[in-house]
């Protein structure tokens, strides 16, 4: 079981780390990756959370707003997928009305994974043509947020306890991440000529 979880962990994290080889952190205009993150995250829904979340990846981010959005979409997919797996495991272990609520939440998160994956796939395939496909990316990211809302609504009705507290915190964190990725897409698209 531990080997399987370790494999799952690395299979989710490795694509993030290999999105590109680390590029120099300054562009020809002198804008560093950290400055790029701060510039675009200040327009995010949760700016402090955005800066904190993406600063960890500064060495892997080219000083290019499109690359930042691609990274945000890929990380969102991995975060939502991880949460979906965790909620599904709790749903299988639960009994009574909580089991049904957790299964509904797991289904909503599976839908969110699909939507976030569509966004990431389009961004990774089109790259610099992001302005052309922004409608699809925005629609898919918005759908991922709505699906996470559906899960949150289900989770509000789960009986109080450690599982609810832990999962509620995780759902809020992943939702913040997704909403920031969505706002980064919107911000970067406004900046693209």
UniProtKB/TrEMBL annotation:
InterPro entries: Invertase/methylesterase_inhib, Pectinesterase_inhib_dom, PME_Inhibitor. Residues 1-20 form the signal peptide. Keywords: Signal. Pfam families: PMEI (PF04043). SUPFAM superfamilies: Plant invertase/pectin methylesterase inhibitor. It comes from the Eukaryota. One of its GO terms (molecular function) is enzyme inhibitor activity. Coiled coil: none annotated. Residues 32-184 form the Pectinesterase inhibitor domain. This is Pectinesterase inhibitor 4-like. The lineage of its organism: Eukaryota, Viridiplantae, Streptophyta, Embryophyta, Tracheophyta.
